[in-house]
Amino acid sequence: MSLIKHELYKLFSQRVIYIAMIFLVSIQVLYFFADNNIKVHKPVQAVFHELQHMTPDDKLAWAEQLQAEERKRINDQLPYDKTLEPQIIASYEITRAQGYGIDASYYLQGWSNVLMFNQQLGYYLIGALCIIGLSSIFSREYGSRMDSLIYSSKHGRRRTVSAKLAVTVIYCATVCMLYGAVQLTLSGWFYDLKGSSEPLRAIHHFFAQTSYTGPIWSYYIIQVLFTIAGCSALGLLVTLLSSLTRHAIIPAFIGGTLYLLPDVMMKLNLWIPYVSETIVTLFPYSRFVSQDHLSFVHLVPSYEIAGVPIYNETETLFYIALYISVTCLLVYFSMRKRQVS
């Protein structure tokens, strides 16, 4: 435990982590304001608050009546009444939700921001801070010639490697929870996080087809755990690369390339037969972190094992565990073969 604390101290004593953290969190905050029209959403949220005493049928009747009046106003070419905009937006939210068999009790814009953050921007920020912090976890000691002192004792090498692997996972979890806390704070401050006990399908813009029947808060916990696991897989890859060189820029560059290249190729449609498919299949780290597979839309299983359907979430979790296990073994093997100077 003392060795883990020592490795944590060395890792978090890097100034570059805090410089990058301030810069990346600033991007997160700016993106939040750019992506959210708070002047529109806040009044809509107030309308939902006023409607909470109404039954689902009464809310639906209110919404349909308001929409009928709006259509009549448009047909009569009457001037647009800006003051009715929040009520109109709320009415369409209610009717859309009813179309999916959902009672829109809350305006869940805050939770939408929280749950969709990883897929939209979060996985870029998480990956960047993960790579920046871990690229020198071994390289720093090689560069300062401290490796000969640390790894020369009988048990020093194995224990030090184990401590560094543990610190990698702790650091990745810290990064994920940092961004999660910032997003929760922003969404809770400018909206609110009421409605956390509503079913996930209540966020019908993104999860109307989900098979997950639990509340929003439980899905969020699952999402955080998946993100930490995926980030740990990436962090261990960077740790492995760092164990192979004394120059921290090399694992940072290679790790960043392997993380972003599959995502860039898919988004820009840069598809080279066999080559692109191989890269996307072998280096799925951005998909591990972005959680785009975690919608629980169980239409067709990925596989069946002994008659048991294996869906996308289970398959992804298996691959994350596989990548983590293989990477840890490769780090141990790399350090076992390394000759100290």
Automatic annotation (TrEMBL):
Membrane-spanning segments: 16-34, 121-140, 161-182, 217-241, 248-266, 317-335
Position of the signal peptide: none
Keyword Membrane assigned: yes
Keywords attached to this entry: Membrane, Transmembrane, Transmembrane helix
Origin: domain of life: Bacteria
Protein name from the UniProt record: Uncharacterized protein
Organism: Paenibacillus paeoniae
